[in-house]
Every structure is written in structure tokens, then in C-alpha cells.
Write a structure and sequence with these properties.
This protein is an alpha+beta fold and 163 residues long. The chain is elongated, with a radius of gyration of 23 Å. About 9% of the residues have low confidence.
Length: 163
């Protein structure tokens, strides 16, 4: 004969343990969630650095669409995050491109941790991600890092500048 009472007790113990784990995970996530005060000013937070050779500008999240419309030059956008190792590897390449294309193109770095909606609008699924924008339209993009990143992005940017 099968002892169903034992199976029921084991099942209840498993359900209780899962419930405790779920509550603990929820508590940890709630503890790390941004507070209302922090998110209230997010629309005006500085999240990007714009390079023109050696000059830097900071543009707020709310101002980015206007910035793209006002800019006559092509814009190379580097979507990155501080915790991303390939993003850190690509940073010197992007800085060098800012000097190379000074006066010809704008180089923008957008931290995806602070500008998630902007990254989603550009279809960013992985970082580093690079988008080239001309007349407020994405004309080319690339995801990932490689040793040839500078020449690949340079070729894409040169093609947009020539066209």
C-alpha cells in the first residue's frame, strides 16, 4: 500500500521552501530597486558624453531627440555600460575616433544602465552596440567588440560621410 500522507508532507515542505525562497528573492529585488526620488529626476539626468575632438558636452535624456535633430553631422553612438568588459576595450577606439572625426561627425556615448529606453528605441540587444545616425535615422549599426573595431566603424562612418 502507498503511504500518501508521507508524499503529501514532502510536497508541503517543498512548497514552503519555494515560498520562502520566492519571498527572499522579492525582498532582495525590492531592496535594490531605484527609489522614487532617484527616478523622479531621471528625465533630466546626464547620461551621455558627446565628443568633438577634445571638447565634451553633456546632454540629458530628455534633450537627446532634440540633439539628434539639431546635429547636422552624422552621429556615432556607442551604447555601453561600466560593468561590460568589451565596452571598456572599445572605449579607447571610440576616443580616438572622436579626435579623427573632429568637425566631421559627432561621437556619443550612452550608458545603457541609465538610458534603457533610448537603447530600446535603437534596438540594442547587446553591448557594446554602435549605431550611426544621419538626419535622425539609423543608417548602420554594429554589435560587439573586435580588434578591427576602429577600421570597421571608420569604414562605416566614411561611407555615410561620402554619401
Amino acid at each position: 500500500m502507498v503511504d500518501y500522507s508521507r508524499k503529501i508532507r514532502v510536497g508541503l515542505i517543498v512548497v514552503i521552501v519555494l515560498a520562502i525562497v520566492a519571498v527572499a528573492v522579492y525582498a532582495l529585488l525590492a531592496q535594490n530597486a531605484p527609489k522614487d526620488e532617484a527616478t523622479a529626476g531621471l528625465e533630466s539626468a546626464v547620461y551621455e558624453v558627446v565628443w568633438n575632438g577634445s571638447d565634451y558636452e553633456h546632454v540629458g535624456i530628455a534633450d537627446f531627440a532634440a540633439y539628434m535633430k539639431e546635429t547636422q553631422e552624422p552621429i556615432l553612438i556607442d551604447f555601453w555600460a561600466e560593468w561590460c568588459s568589451p565596452c571598456r576595450l572599445s572605449a579607447p577606439v571610440i576616443e580616438e575616433m572622436a579626435q579623427t572625426y573632429d568637425g566631421k561627425a559627432r561621437i556619443v556615448k550612452i550608458n545603457t544602465d541609465y538610458a534603457g529606453p533610448i537603447a530600446q528605441a535603437f534596438g540594442v540587444n547587446g553591448i557594446p552596440h554602435f549605431s550611426i545616425v544621419k538626419d535622425s535615422t539609423v543608417v548602420d549599426s554594429l554589435t560587439g567588440y573586435s580588434e578591427e573595431l576602429g577600421s570597421i566603424l571608420g569604414g562605416k562612418l566614411d561611407a555615410v560621410l561620402a554619401g
